[in-house]
TrEMBL record:
Enzyme Commission number, as recorded: 4.2.1.19
Gene this chain is encoded by: hisB
Protein's recorded name: Imidazoleglycerol-phosphate dehydratase
Organism of derivation: Methanococcoides methylutens MM1
Origin superkingdom: Archaea
One Gene Ontology molecular-function label: imidazoleglycerol-phosphate dehydratase activity
CDD domains on file: IGPD
Compartment list: Cytoplasm
A GO CC term assigned to this protein in UniProt: cytoplasm
Pfam families reported for this sequence: IGPD (PF00475)
Entries under NCBIfam families matching the protein: PRK00951.2-1 (NF002111), PRK00951.2-4 (NF002114)
Any Gene Ontology biological process: L-histidine biosynthetic process
Cited Gene3D superfamilies: Imidazole glycerol phosphate dehydratase, domain 1
Amino acid sequence: MRNAKIARKTKETDIRMELDLDGKGSAEINTGIGFFDHMLNSFARHGSFDLKIDATGDLIVDEHHLIEDTAIVLGQAIAQAVGDKNGIARFGEARIPMDEALADVVLDLGGRSYLVMNTEFESPRVGEMNTQLVKHFFESLTENAKMNLHATVTGYNDHHKIEALFKAFAYALRRAVKIEGEGIKSTKGVL
């Protein structure tokens, strides 16, 4: 079973999450941030992951803590669900368009955290989500998933750019977690 169930409670947020890497793409997402919920639903659907998130936080301050902590928990859930990484493809990539926007994502579940993201946003917000938090979401996620992630997004509509990015991430991750046989894909023998 390649799944994870994680809870994280701080003075700022309370997050409960379930992730099944071998799901069918069903999602039950409730963060209180509409656009963020939409992105997480897209991630689950296009990755064919089953994902449940119930997250509350100090939205009266702003959405930063809730988005950051959701990323932390999702990263931990990915790491837990892949376990010892025996048999996984390890690497994944995807190139996804959405109208004028184009997202390229390449990732490695090799155990080292690193994010390279090349994108700029035209607007400070999409819905209730600060566009600065898109990069911060992926920084927190990659650190906790122990994942190397390179992402480039072009276009002019920020909704399209962010959605293409989340979909490309989903497809790349689905390819990276695919079971391809036995053993660890590393000359070291461990990841």
